[in-house]
Amino acid sequence: MIATKKIEFGDFQTPPGLAREIADFLRDSGETADIVVEPTCGRGSFVAAAMTAFPRAKAIYGFDINPAYVCEAANAAGQQDGRKLHLERRNFFQIDWTEFFSMLTGTVLVIGNPPWVTNSALGTLESDNLPEKTNFQGHNGFAAKTGKANFDISEWMLIKLTGALHRRVGCIAMLCKTSTARKLLRYAWLNRLNIGRCSLHLIDAQKHFGASVNAGLLIVHTGTVGCATTACVYPNLSFNRKSSTFGLAGKELVADVDEYQRLQDLDGASYYTWRSGVKHDAAGVMEFKHENGQFTNGRNEICNLELTYLFPLLKSSDIANGRLTPDRYVLVTQRTPSDDTASVMRNAPKTWSYLLAHADALDQRRSVIYAKRPRFSVFGIGDYTFAPWKVTISGLYKNCRFNVIGKHHDKPIVLDDTCYFIPCASEAEACLVCDLLNSDICQRFLRSQVFLDAKRPVTVDILNRIDLKKVAEHVNRSLEAQQYLSAAAGFNDKQPLLVFAGKTGY
Ligand SMILES: C[S@@+](CC[C@H](N)C(=O)[O-])C[C@H]1O[C@@H](n2cnc3c(N)ncnc32)[C@H](O)[C@@H]1O
Predict the structure, then answer these.
(1) Is the N end or the C end of the chain the one with fewer CB atoms within 10 Å?
(2) DSSP letters along 256-323, please?
């Protein structure tokens, strides 16, 4: 019960020593504060630290939803020294932050560490510790269904605070996941909020919070106009030794703005449509080890199945580690998403019996992508799934190398849903595309965009930015590329991409 509450309220109290280090660092790097605000103050580590580091602050506000924490924060803050200390039990979501800041005069420093929890975790707990409107990222229905609309509560809170403070001079200095910091900045830059001098200072979250996440202190200055849409990353709580500068390129963030700008001419049309692998959300019953001529599922049952719907499978870990000979198979029950799976009954009765016997796992799949679709459906399939050759990369690993995969025992190898790939008609086409993607210049371009600490460093948005025609020009392989890229653009109905037509000199 206590553990559940900790999850629900994203409750990771900042150790007082770290809060002091952060407050002192802010003061020593020139921050000033007439007013200090700790929006989710917990036991008050930041309240106490800010009182010491900013002795000239006229007022300090600390709010938390947990009344016991508010009492503890009052104890942590100790004797008041004539300044106004306002500690109150308040729900972040019920505060009108624009109105709140408008009542304060002077420079505002917002400091703290908002809850570490996502809306989907709260959904699982059936918690209502959520903002009223959650689609603030403006995702469409499909993105919401496929999980893109999942967000950190702290992201929502930081967006609220920045939006409420951006018209006046202030500073927001909050601990958060590095991914949350990036999402906030992307939102603020795209929505033209008045922010500038942004930096991210990495901390060791394992050491301080016992949590294996990438986290840091995000510093954002508000009330500044016409600033660059970039932020510097530092390995610690200092401004020495910058490790990188990330920023906005078009509508997306890139990890290394300088390198990206050097290679910007490779940012263009993708020609091919990048695909992801098969999704089924039931590995225990849909995937099989193949040993000594037998198929064994994840429940350790030996399964007697026709080969009709079984396909050799490579997973992200295989691709990232160069293990390209499959030892696993997966059941792919359809060729297109609209296929009726009842055909399995006619074509492969043993497979159909197997599916019925394991319907417990399949019927319970929670994702709405399976709702209103034939029983035992899979997702992320089409003609491309069965292409004889593929050029693939894992989305989950830092390894940005691409691999060519072909058939195994005369069946096309399929990939899991954490891999991305380009379907190819021939080995020659796949090898050329793979060579282009692995070329030095393309790898540099890719790495300039990839955030290596992200859960999915390589995304389809990043892959879609690679202009293979431009890459081919750089590595002097335009002539070979021409035939394949023209055909790919035509096949994918990307008429405007038929730029090779009529050109001479290739
Ligand atoms: C990650 S902890 C950090 C606490 C404190 N800021 C610190 O740095 O030690 C997040 C805090 O947010 C509080 N919290 C969670 N949901 C809240 C809400 N809706 N309104 C206000 N506080 C909330 C929790 O009780 C918890 O104390």
Answers:
(1) N
(2) -HHHHHHTGGGBS--SSPPEE-BB-S-HHHHEEEEETTEEEETTS-EE---STTEEEEE-HHHHHTT-
Q: Is 492 in the pocket of ligand 1 (CB under 6 A)?
A: no
Q: Which atom number of ligand 1 is nearest to the Cα of residue 69?
A: 27
Cβ of 116 less than 6 Å from ligand 1: yes
Q: What is the pLDDT along the chain (506 residues), one digit of tens a residue?
A: 567 777 777 889 999 999 999 999 999 999 999 999 999 999 999 999 999 999 999 999 999 999 999 999 999 888 666 678 999 999 999 999 999 999 999 999 999 999 998 777 777 667 777 777 656 666 665 555 555 567 889 999 999 999 999 999 999 999 999 999 999 999 999 999 999 999 999 999 999 999 999 999 999 999 998 789 999 999 999 999 999 999 999 999 999 999 999 999 999 988 999 999 999 999 999 999 999 999 999 999 999 999 999 999 999 999 999 999 999 999 999 999 889 999 999 999 999 999 999 999 999 888 888 888 899 999 999 999 999 999 999 999 998 999 999 999 999 999 999 999 999 999 999 999 999 999 999 999 999 999 999 999 999 999 999 999 999 999 999 999 998 998 775 545 444 344 443 333 22
- Minimum-distance ligand 1 atom for the alpha carbon of 129: 19
Does residue 42 have its Cβ closer than 6 Å to ligand 1? yes
Q: Is the CB of 209 under 6 A from ligand 1?
A: no
Length of the chain: 506
Q: What is the pTM of this model?
A: 0.86
Question: What's the per-residue H, E or C state across 375-408?
Answer: CCCCECCCHHHHCCEEEEEECCCCCCCCEEECEE
Residue 485 CA to residue 273 CA, distance in Å, equals 11
Q: Tell me, in angstroms, the distance from the centre of ligand 1 to residue 40's CA.
A: 4
What sign has the CA pseudo-torsion 432, 434, 440, 444? positive
Q: State which ligand 1 atom lies nearest to the alpha carbon of 46.
A: 8
What the chain holds in terms of domains, given with CATH numbers, is 2-254 (3.40.50.150), 275-497 (no CATH)
| 64 CB near ligand 1 (under 6 Å) | yes
